Amino acid sequence: MQSLSRDNRVGYGGEMVGIVSESCVMKGQEASDRMELIWSVLARNEVFWGYRPATIAATGLLGIVAATLQPWVLGDVSARPDGYVFWWSGIAAICILMVSCQLAREAMGIKDPYRLQLMRQAVSQFVPAVILGAVITGLSLKFDSPSVSLLPGLWAIFFSLAIIASRPYLHFSVQLAALHYAIMGSIGIILSGYQLSFSPWYMAMTFGLSQCVTAWILFCKGRPHEC
User: Could you tell me the pLDDT band of residue 187, with boundaries at 50, 70 and 90?
Assistant: First the structure.
């Protein structure tokens, strides 16, 4: 009987240890989740300075150079608008790669979990509109839709929406770029009815100018020592 009682105590003790360990793990996970929620809420009131002026200016200059080269590289794009779409899609991909590499380098140097959370939230707000623009571009090309002429204007509108979605994390002055993109997007849709939306200078005025203005705003208002 004593041996049985001792075995029971050992069994109960092991069970209690298991329950306590599981409780500690659950409390630790709950604390981690709550801390992440707190960081998420705090990040909404913090300005994200991770987009560097030099990188944004480089994308704008690349857009202006691409617009300048377009007539020599593509010739008359009204006969083959798909060439125009591939040209500017490639330019957009290069710009996204440039910004992504810069953000990745920034992230590697950040030790503060709060700053990393801020970066993730700011970038995640920007991504959906860009993905939607890429999907619509692909569908327009796949089905050879007449709406291809609308794409330059739609690109500008999607980019405007991406900036607006990131508004809680960006300096309010950056909204000027969103307004410019929205206006130029509306103009591009109007021009599509006259087959003028494929003009290289439309993209130079829309993308190139907006990115350069955004870089100037970030340079004047930003704090380079912060993410």
Answer: very high
The identity of residue 145, as a single letter, is: S
Residue 149 or residue 18, greater confidence: 149
CA dist., res. 122 & res. 222, Å (int): 15
Burial class, 51, CB count within 10 angstroms (exposed 0-12 / middle 13-18 / buried 19+): buried
Contact between 51 and 99 under an 8 Å Cβ cutoff? The reply is yes
How far is the C-alpha of 125 from the C-alpha of 132, rounded, in Å? 13
pLDDT, average across residues 23-51: 57
Q: In this structure, how many other beta carbons lie within 10 angstroms of the beta carbon of residue 49?
A: 21
Residue 74: name the closest of 170, 203, 178 by CA. 203
